Amino acid sequence: MAAIAFVLLVGMCAIPLFKMGKVLDELAAVVRDVGTGTTPILDELKGTVEVTNAEIARLGDVTAEVEKVTADVAKVSGHASQAAGNAAALSKVMTAAVGRPLVAVASTSHALRTAIASKVDGNRRTEEL
Questions:
Q1: Considering the entire predicted model, what is its pTM?
Q2: Angle at CA 116, nearest 5°, toward 110 and 120?
Q3: Which of 2, 38, 98, 104 has the lowest tally of Cβ within 10 angstroms?
């Protein structure tokens, strides 16, 4: 009787062990599938990272070019400021060299015309009397 009870006990323990073996087989298949499915994803991710790194390198080149253009714009701006300052100085020189003498000539000619006109008017008045 003890032998039969022992066989029944072993049989009852064998069923869960058999089911546990099936679960472990399924788990091994899932791990294998994950490994198989992960490899292409990692390869694609590697390609994406390489492309991203290349774009970042190009962005660095663009940034360097922008810095060069900014430096050139600063130079041109400085030259434009200097040209504006030179034009203002030239305007002052021209005003001093040409403008003031022209005003003096114009005022002198006006004074002469006024004097001649009054002299002519004075002679006409004396002739009329």
A1: 0.41
A2: 145
A3: 2
